[in-house]
Amino acid sequence: MNRPDGSESRFFTVPLELLEPGGLLPCDIWLPRRDGRPVRYRHARLAFDERHRARLEAAGVGAVLIAFDDAEAWNRHLEGRLGKIVSRTDLSVDQRAAVLVESARGIVREILERPEVATARPRLDVLAGALADFTREPGGFAAIVRLFEHDYYTYTHSVHVAVYATALAAACGYGSPAQLRSVARAAAMHDAGKVGIPPEVLNKPGPLDDAEWQLMRRHPQDGRRVLEQAGWTDALMLEAVELHHERLDGSGYPHGLAAERIPLVPRIMMIADAYDAMTSDRAYMKALSGVRALEILHADERERYGQDLVATFIRTLFDPREIARRH
Length: 327
Ligand SMILES: [Fe+2]
Ligand SMILES: [Fe+2]
Prior knowledge:
It is built from 17 helices and 6 strands. It is mainly α. The model has no long low-confidence stretch (mean pLDDT about 95). One fe (ii) ion binds next to helix 7.
């Protein structure tokens, strides 16, 4: 039975291709109707096989509907298949990017909230693997970036930084696919230390006072500590989290390290992080255009970010084939 208020606004559309035959449905599946009141097609936990799919195709159904109330069950279902989905060539690059970004937001938000749960590491591994693979695929990086929003939340920012950092690392020819996965993992967690900062400080519209600034400056080391206490041992990740606010001219924090003491991955992260921060709407500043943000990184603040790496980042953004060429 349809609920009396079953109007289409309570549903989101899913391409039929994402409804894989051969398993149990993770949630109720609905079909659109011309009167705008969807009809339930099949209940959760019923089998869905090739015959069902063929019948829908024969009826001209290209997409099904899922209730927003079931979004979590559906997203979890997709997440479990993420590695497979991002390599499915029967899906368009944009369809795969949409699944990847949606999964990434859910995974990163939940892990930043609770990095100690046992499922955190395997979930981040799945995401990092999917990101590392998809970013190197033709059109993959650009398709993901098109889905970015300018709203600034720590978890969306973290997803963006993971994507930019993975793409930049790939464009530098950095390491193996396994190492790219490490970069993705590290970048997704780079602001793990912000959980301890009260939202009124994080979202303060004006400049921070001394005490607030002290608190803010602690987040790279706090992040390392939070992750260590939660049982994370990936040395590359821990180091990159701790060093992502260092700057090559020694003006960064927490250590004020000189350029030669800042390894490549934290350098990559610095650029990805600064670029995303500048191109997002924050409480104290409107988003800058991508071009303006790159001018700042490449010219105004050239001593801080390292021009060679920024130049590679610019090429990566404007000609993502750069990523594929180096790998
Ligand atoms: Fe940060
Ligand atoms: Fe950040």
